[in-house]
Amino acid sequence: MKRYQALADDIAASIRDGLLRPGQRLPSVRRTSTARGVSPATVFQAYYLLEARGLVRSRARSGYYVSSAPPALPPEPDAASQPDGESRPVDVSELVFEVLESAMARDVVPLGSAFPSPQLFPLRKLGRAMASAAVHLDPWSTVDELTPGKVALRRQIALRYRIDGLQVGADAIVITNGALEALNLCVTALTQPGDAVLVESPCFYATLQSLERHGLRAIEVPTHPRDGIDLDAMDAAIGRHRPKACWLMTNFQNPLGSAMPDEKKRALVERLTRHGVPLIEDDVYGELYFGERRPTPAKAYDRDGLVMHCASFSKTLAPGYRIGWVAPGRYLREVARAKLTATLSTCVPAQLALADYLAQGGYDRHLRRLRTALLAQQGQYLEAVARHFPEGTRVTRPAGGYFLWIELPEGADALRVYRQAADMGISIAPGPMFSVRRGFGHCLRLNCGHPLDERVEAALATLGRLAAASAGIA
Amino acid sequence: MKRYQALADDIAASIRDGLLRPGQRLPSVRRTSTARGVSPATVFQAYYLLEARGLVRSRARSGYYVSSAPPALPPEPDAASQPDGESRPVDVSELVFEVLESAMARDVVPLGSAFPSPQLFPLRKLGRAMASAAVHLDPWSTVDELTPGKVALRRQIALRYRIDGLQVGADAIVITNGALEALNLCVTALTQPGDAVLVESPCFYATLQSLERHGLRAIEVPTHPRDGIDLDAMDAAIGRHRPKACWLMTNFQNPLGSAMPDEKKRALVERLTRHGVPLIEDDVYGELYFGERRPTPAKAYDRDGLVMHCASFSKTLAPGYRIGWVAPGRYLREVARAKLTATLSTCVPAQLALADYLAQGGYDRHLRRLRTALLAQQGQYLEAVARHFPEGTRVTRPAGGYFLWIELPEGADALRVYRQAADMGISIAPGPMFSVRRGFGHCLRLNCGHPLDERVEAALATLGRLAAASAGIA
Description:
Two copies of one chain form a homodimer. The two termini of chain A are 36 Å apart. In chain A, strands 3, 4, 5, 6, 7, 8, 9, 10 and 11 form a nine-stranded mixed sheet that branches. In chain A, strands 12-13-15-14 form a four-stranded antiparallel sheet, with helices on one face. Among the domains of chain A are: 3-66, Winged helix-like DNA-binding domain superfamily/Winged helix DNA-binding domain (Arc Repressor Mutant, subunit A); 123-363, Type I PLP-dependent aspartate aminotransferase-like (Major domain) (Aspartate Aminotransferase, domain 2). In chain A, 41% of the residues lie in helices and 13% in strands. The first copy, chain A, is globular and about 75 Å long. The longest helix of chain A is centred in the last third of the chain and has 26 residues, at 363-388. Chain A has helices at 3-16, 29-36, 40-52, 93-103, 123-135, 151-163, 178-190, 205-213, 231-241, 262-275, 332-342, 348-360, 363-388, 414-423, 454-470; strands at residues 56-59, 63-66, 87-89, 174-176, 196-201, 217-224, 228-229, 245-248, 279-282, 307-312, 324-327, 394-395, 403-407, 429-430, 443-447. In chain A, β12 (394-395) and β13 form a beta hairpin. The first copy, chain A, is an alpha/beta fold. Chain A has 15 helices and 15 strands. At the A-B interface, α4, α5, α7, α8 and α11 of A face α4, α5, α7, α8 and α11 of B. Chains A, B: One of its GO terms (molecular function) is transaminase activity. Chains A, B: This is PLP-dependent aminotransferase family protein. Chains A, B: Keywords: Aminotransferase, DNA-binding, Pyridoxal phosphate, Transcription, Transcription regulation, Transferase. Chains A, B: In the C-terminal section; belongs to the class-I pyridoxal-phosphate-dependent aminotransferase family.
């Protein structure tokens, strides 16, 4: 983060905490410059940024004043989705590829990106662990433990499971090329082409791509933006379609940000166990909680080995290292064999580097900092949405992760907003990406994993205007 | 390599070159010790090893003498395989998994392994490149160029193509998690479940696993141990079965070691182009040639973008890094998208490390050393097979790579030899692993990628005895 952004965030926090009150004058640029030991230019930039965020206003020849009141936030979405309960072959990929390809350039404002800012991660410290692992690599370690992955890393992951109250041994884990491979291996282990899989509605587009790749049918189940999938609807869909698996994100679901309460997770596992339907649990955001403690994975309630818990370090520690894993329960053998025939093994020095980093300690300290940053950014983005988006907009307040799910007013067309924004160098993720029915035409997902600087603020203002125009609001 | 092994190899070379002649006495241990600047114990070990290899004999109280003549090598296999031309669903995996799992322990003699000794690779120098790449990682490099892979590495690969006379630009390459992922992506891009693919007979078991994983049928085509697939038989199979792809290893095929001459490759591509059948070219051993220059990939003759050239650094430079690639010709878009949905991206620091190593130069020097070592080892293994295997054995002399294909005498059962050897801590790769028909029941593949020390020599002697017993030879 740049110096002026840090300063602006500090002042914003003082405003939120009431240390600076509405109408109060900010200290002069010179005084702040002296007090903080930064240049006057930096202070100016910080004040401009606060003004862009609507937190302060400038008065000619008089300085900057705290705005009278922060804008009220738009209401939350308050109803579960209502998919039609049909089973469908999956064919979403063209749209998804188009959106992903348009979002990947460095100069695009990455509101549609699936990644938080890479500057939030301890890449230098990790780099030193990687340096040590690579220079001291035991040659024989390149040919043993190939398919399950390095036992040193599996032990560290098992230790984290233990701390979270789960009994998952190192031998019950397979290391993968990111969580995406883990999830694909679960699908490979459980299904044959033509089978059906239950998913949330909306669900992560990579889930749909995976099902399409495997020639599967998807059944969207009603899902609430706060607490996730509707269990009764799930029961009914299982009875009707006899799916081979249920694929859910239990914690801070992408795109909704929904999190299933612990009791609901317990009930979920009980019901799936009764039906004999395995759960593919995608839990890549669980560590990014804003509350007191990590939300439990559904895996914690699994007695029969039916929950295949998939996670990774890509969103929490080591973007670009591509290290994920799966604890596949009773399907361990099938998953290990699928891994062997898919990619054989995962980059050995990267595995050893992460094992070494985790063994040194420091991961939890980093996670605390990361969560604090993401929570602060969520607040800033919510306020920016309040400032810029039209009346009738709804937006989620997830208790973790870095996505906001926005319902635009009736009549707005998220795909049209997406296309217009793309032409202006702004990426968003339109709702229909997240549905096999192409539902959620008036919704979009915003990434708030990047610091809210002027460029992002301006992009959000543009999006708000495009959304209003699309909804026919002047 | 240990010091005594290097000394033994030197002396063996002198014997082969005629500098030491049959019947001649070796210098005394003391003299060699002084001349070479090594300990007497090292010289003793070297002489023991030469004796174990049958190159010298000891006479009581008199010293070591060069054996009267090196044993004549067994003849080469001299006929192409004769599969029945049927198209079959693939179901080889149980046997293959069993063999691979039994071969993976560190204490097993790795004659069935698919990897050469990891000590043949510059892992420390690579480690330093990795250290630098990881410590200086640009955070944004973890989120851009995700799916095709880092352009710095793709440029280095394109440069090597250019040196070998191929026009393949950096933009025409997708980086993968080893060649295995590259090959799987090609299959995903080209086929639907139930389609048929042409393969060699015998063919690499991972090919069969990939076809099984994708729900495909395999058609084995007659293949000669010296020059590869029979083009007329291929034509006939294409006419009969209308396969969606042809998957071949054109250079130093695994397991045969066969290499298609350039003119044959040109004809191969012409014929496939006429049929409109794409070629998945698995070329992971092409750099391991013993001749004057790298054998040309079939890709060199491709005018229509129908050849998908797959390779990796796993066997030539960087085992365990899991960096491969594919130049998929006209299927670039389909392959890139398949990569995105399979594993999204490949470990970024590992890609940058290899790009850096390649840019520094030194890869070709390493390759020259590696080829020299592999050629020397092939000679030693061939002589050991001559010493220990029964009359009627045939063995290939590949012009590159590190596999020998052995035809045991009529009546021998390679699966039985494999099981008996496994119980004694020796791994081999029995012929039926390499065939969808479970053919090649009297054949086996030997890995000569590990230095031939006493333990390997003893293992080869054991294998020879087991083979003789299995063939009913006293």
